[in-house]
Amino acid sequence: METLDDHDLKAVALGCRYDKEWIFKDLTFSVKPGEALGIVGLSGSGKTTLAYCLTGIISKNLKGEVAGSVYVEGKNILELDDKERYKSINAVLQNYEVQIFGLTVEEDLLFVLENLELDEEETEKRFEWALERFGLKEYRNYQVNELSGGLRQRLALASTLLMQPKYLVMDDPMANLDWCGIVELRRTLQMLKEGGHGLVIMARRLKGLEPVIDKTISLGHMLARQDMLDDVINEPRPMFTKYGPVIKFENVWFSYAKRMVLKSIDLSISRGQCVILMGPNGSGKTTLAKHINGLLKPSSGRVLVLGKDTKKHGPAQMARHVGFVFQDPDKHITQESVWDEAIFGAKNLGLNYTYAETALEMLGLSHRRSDPPYRLSMGERVRLSIAGILAMNPEILILDEPTTGQDEETLSVINSMLTRMKTEGKTILVITHDSDFALKIGDRIIVIHDGRVVADDQPRRILFNKNLLEEFGLEPPSHLLIQSAKEVSDHVKA
Amino acid sequence: MLKLDCRSKLIFFFSLMTLTFVCKDLWCMIILLAAASATVAMKGASLINKSLKIMLPMVFVAFVTWSLLHNWSLFQSGGIGLDWQLGSFMAIRLFTILMTSTGFLATVKPGELMKGLSLLGVPYGVVFTTGLAFRHIYTVADDYHSVKEALSSRGLELDKGSLVKRIRNYVFVLTPLLVKSIENAEKLVLAMKLKAFSLDKRRRKSSKLGLLDVLVISSSIIALGVAILHYWVGVI
After folding, report:
1. Subunit contact B195:A319, Cβ cutoff 8 A
2. B contacts of A324 (beta carbons < 8 Å)
3. How confident is the model at residue A231 (pLDDT cuts 50, 70, 90)?
4. Binning pLDDT at 50, 70 and 90, where does residue A235 land?
5. Is A83 in contact with A165 (CB distance < 8 Å)?
6. C-beta separation of A444 from A457 below 8 A
7. Where are the alpha helices (DSSP H) in A319-465?
8. How many structural domains compose chain B?
9. Best B6, B114, B135 residue to mutate vs chain A (most A CBs within 10 Å)
10. Contact in structure between A494 and A199 (CB atoms under 8 Å)
11. Could you tell me the pTM of the whole model?
């Protein structure tokens, strides 16, 4: 057996490919126990593939060619048997939904412990440890579907750590987390480091985790995000334009499953404005947006869109005026070619396909019009879903988390598309946690918290107000974080 | 019922459901209906009201159909003849089946079902697969909801048009749902590998049955045994 003499995790000249092209090559790094390595890469840069390589899934369970080697405590992981390997290095994958096997929290934790075939005493000890350490005690008998996204992620992490791996790989743990979730994740990572676990954190960006990351490498070609977003802060338009309101919420209340999700919403959005909806997960942002295209109807009050009461119109009718780009493009691809997918909405509405042509061109997909959509990269699929909406030429465009996990090309295309739509006088509503993106494109930010509008102002006034950010758990813009870090460093120097 | 051991609940509902098919006596069926209704009532009056609203029209249709058209089947027609007794019996049987199913769903959590099956000796592979299916019903239901929302936002009217058109429109909903489920299944297998899953050497910690459990299990088994001997074998 090939061995090295230390306790580190070492990747030596690591490379991987599924077909002819290498996804990454000659990757060499090491992580010590209690250390955290951040690997930054955009969508499609190979983060998940690297996680599979580090844990030996590729070679052992998935087809793919791996070059170089991975060592944990001097042992080549591919020479270890499955149980030993997963005790040396394990991973929490991006989709934590598929990593939960039990119907309740207790069952999920017991599932792993049963796999390990431990004696009763050790099983009990580790079980109690996981409940205590990850704050799951009060949720012990909860059904998994009753847990929030954050709690499910915590459960997936707890059940992986029951195996007591020396090294843990986390694939994009910040995807879909709001700022409070990121702060909580940071605390968990700190706790794991203190417990002597070596960590490999893969993410599109590490904003919010910087204090616990000891070193960083980037995967693939990285275009500094700062270059794309932070150099320009949008000069916002006035809060109310001369054109008058196109969207009006009049004392809207909405309840779902006996819970009041929207409370007394009064809003007015003018034509041509780019409005950003911000707020923690579960605050009611998407619920509010779904009222605009008639997917949801208010329990009381009314929503007027271009003068139409949405209570009287279904989403299919509203689609002529309001385009809604959902977060996960895979949930609405139904056609066999890019072109058919792009014209799907226009066809349903009986429109001609002129706008579909323009949209595909604007989003850089004209050359792929006869390809099957599932052959496109994730970024291209996002662009296709936007093209499908633009093909219906809506007056109002709603985008739900358009920047989450996007590659650089898609980010820049979305930026220019939104800028163009603003100049055309379209009304845009963007739901996002990304404060840098909000500063770049927004004319106005509406903050939703616990179903209420708690702030409504120009982006700069909201995102540079530290008290507001803290009170409502909003992500601070990079400018502010850099400034704070500088202040701390100056203070230390002084 | 709510505090019973999962094994007792499974045996009770299994016996109740089987008895519904074995019994051929109107009064016997009424007793079974009362037992099934009692299990539903334990979850509260609102569930009984809600269930009755949905079930009573179905029971009424069954009563009329069995009373008037009992001589008809898919392959033969025998004209109309009144048989109120058969109509009443079949309607009450349907009512009992519906009430038993509602009682089962209301009082046995999916986790209890899995644990109960495992303790009753059902192979772990079967129990685990059933549990996973239960676990992912929610994910698939969420996905179905999102796909429907996304497609209706693109102008697809799912509940309008002829039956053929509606069915065709639902194919659009099923396509992404199927792709998503296959993707999830692949990831699920990898996640199982990462958690060192194996079907071997599985054990469930068995808990001791209480007096009430013993009573419920024994009376369920005795009732089922007596009914089988009486109606099928003709001994008693």
Report:
1. no
2. 150, 153
3. very low
4. low
5. no
6. yes
7. 338-348, 354-362, 378-390, 408-423, 435-441, 459-463
8. 1
9. B135
10. no
11. 0.79
- For A186-205, the pLDDT digits (tens) are 998 999 999 999 999 998 88
pLDDT at A238: 57
Name the CA radius of gyration of chain A, rounded.
Answer: 24
- Residue A355 above 70 pLDDT? yes
Residue B40 and residue B20: Cα distance in Å, rounded? 16
Helices within A134-167 (DSSP H only): 149-161
Angle at A340 between CA A339 and CA A343, to 5 degrees: 85
List the end-to-end C-alpha distance of chain B, in Å, as a whole number. 30
**Which residues does A267 contact at the CB level (< 8 Å), separation at least 6?**
A247, A248, A249, A446, A453, A456
CB contact, 8 Å: B138 with chain A? yes
**Other CB atoms within 10 A of residue B141 CB:** 11
| Distance of alpha carbon A107 from alpha carbon A441, whole angstroms | 46
Q: Which residues, including other chains, have CB under 8 Å from residue A7's CB and lie 6 or more apart?
A: A32, A33, A73, A166
Q: Domain range for residue B202?
A: 6-233
What's the gap in Å between the CA of B206 and the closest CA on chain A? 13
Q: Does residue B1 sit within a domain?
A: no
Per-residue confidence (pLDDT) for residue A174, from 0 to 100: 85
Residue B226 in contact with partner chain A when CB distance is under 8 A: no
CA B78 from chain centre, in angstroms, equals 33
When comparing pLDDT for A237 and A44, which is higher?
Answer: A44
Distance from CA of B142 to the nearest CA of A (A): 10
Q: Kindly determine whether residue B114 and residue A144, on different chains, have CB atoms separated by under 8 Å.
A: no
Given a contact cutoff of 8 angstroms between Cβ atoms, the answer to whether A157 and A105 are in contact is no
Asked if the model's pLDDT at residue B202 lies above 80, the reply is: no
**B residues 170-209 near A, CB within 8 Å?**
172, 175-176, 179-180, 183-184, 187-198, 201-203, 205
Question: B223-235, pLDDT tens digit by residue?
Answer: 999 999 988 877 7
- Taking CB atoms and an 8 Å cutoff, what residues of chain B touch A344? 154, 156
Q: Would you state the structure tokens that stand for residue A428, as one six-digit string?
A: 């845009």
Note the maximum CA span of chain B. Answer: 66
Residue of B nearest to A168 (CA): B194
| Residues 6 or more apart in contact with residue A59 via CB below 8 angstroms | A53, A66, A78
Is residue B75 situated within a structural domain? yes
State residue A228's pLDDT score.
43
Indicate the DSSP class of residue B231: I
Q: Tell whether B129 is covered by a domain.
A: yes
ipTM over cut 0.85: no
User: Can you tell me the distance from the alpha carbon of A111 to that of A379, in angstroms, rounded to the nearest whole number?
Assistant: 36
Cβ-based neighbours of B219, under 8 Å, separated by 6 or more = none
* Residue B10 included in any domain: yes
